[in-house]
UniProtKB/TrEMBL annotation:
Residues that coordinate or bind 5-phospho-alpha-D-ribose 1-diphosphate: R100, K104, H106, E126, D127, L128, I129, S130, T131, G132, K133, S134
Gene coding for it: pyrE
Lineage: Bacteria, Pseudomonadati, Bacteroidota, Flavobacteriia, Flavobacteriales
Keywords: Glycosyltransferase, Magnesium, Pyrimidine biosynthesis, Transferase
Superkingdom classification of source: Bacteria
Name recorded for this polypeptide: Orotate phosphoribosyltransferase
Oligomer status and interactors: Homodimer.
Pathway annotation from the record: Pyrimidine metabolism; UMP biosynthesis via de novo pathway; UMP from orotate: step 1/2
Protein function: Catalyzes the transfer of a ribosyl phosphate group from 5-phosphoribose 1-diphosphate to orotate, leading to the formation of orotidine monophosphate (OMP).
Organism field: Flavobacterium ginsengisoli
Residues given in the record as orotate binding sites: S130
Swiss-Prot/TrEMBL catalytic activity: orotidine 5'-phosphate + diphosphate = orotate + 5-phospho-alpha-D-ribose 1-diphosphate
Positions of the Phosphoribosyltransferase domain: 59-164
Principal EC category: transferase
Length: 214
């Protein structure tokens, strides 16, 4: 679910402007999973554009507090959401921790890095939601440390049905600055893509794991 329509449209436009999101239905990308995709999203580029990273920070801070109430801690999911998570925590005047994909294999073998007390209210910040699997693994790591997860806030989601099911099963509320639907509407409006290309992009979104296979 998006925080609000205006933010979703503005965020989509900014991501397209800096090529954080690339749309290429004719020459699809190949994801690490092996899926063929007409879209590629790299929200880490946001950090290289001060005015845009400040916009993302401010929208996150405002909407997180409005939607979840002010938490005790902001947690970022490594590695993509560490930078923006720190910005949000700083804006809200809150402690920050981050969650590794898996525990370290040496030292204290931490998966959650930073100071976190049992029972603290945490909002998790993520950069991108695809299936939601890795994001929800971070949630489980925080829960295993005794955190009370208020919800997750992400920059962008592809809006896959499997992600919605995974978040529902984990009992986690997910809110995003923008999503696939608003991105495509804005991309057509601003002539980044044609309506025919929009149809192709919608077909992919309906069945991403099989799209483009012979």
């Amino acid at each position: 679910m998006i925080f609000n329509k205006d933010t979703a449209e503005k965020t989509a436009e900014l991501l397209l402007q800096i090529n954080a999101i690339k749309l290429n239905p004719e020459n699809p990308f190949t994801w690490a999973s092996g899926w063929k995709s007409p879209i590629y999203c790299d929200n880490r580029l946001i950090l290289s554009f001060p005015s845009i990273r400040n916009y993302v920070r401010d929208e996150f801070a405002k909407n997180i507090e409005k939607q979840f109430g002010k938490p005790d801690v902001i947690a970022g999911v490594a590695t993509g959401a560490i930078g923006v998570g720190i910005l949000v925590a700083e804006s809200l005047g809150l402690p920050f921790v981050y969650v590794r994909p898996e525990p370290k294999k040496h030292g204290r073998q931490n998966q959650v890095e930073g100071f976190l007390q049992k029972g603290q209210n945490v909002v998790v910040v993520e950069d991108l939601i695809s299936t939601g699997k890795s994001s929800l693994m971070a949630v489980e790591a925080l829960r295993s440390e005794g955190a009370n997860i208020k919800g997750m806030a992400a920059i962008f989601t592809y809006g896959f049905g499997v992600a919605e099911e995974n978040f529902k099963e984990a009992n986690i509320d997910l809110f995003t600055l923008s999503n696939y639907e608003n991105l495509l509407d804005l991309a057509v409006q601003k002539q980044y893509i044609t309506e025919d290309q929009q149809s192709t992009l919608l077909e992919w979104n309906a069945s991403p794991s099989t799209w483009g296979q012979e």
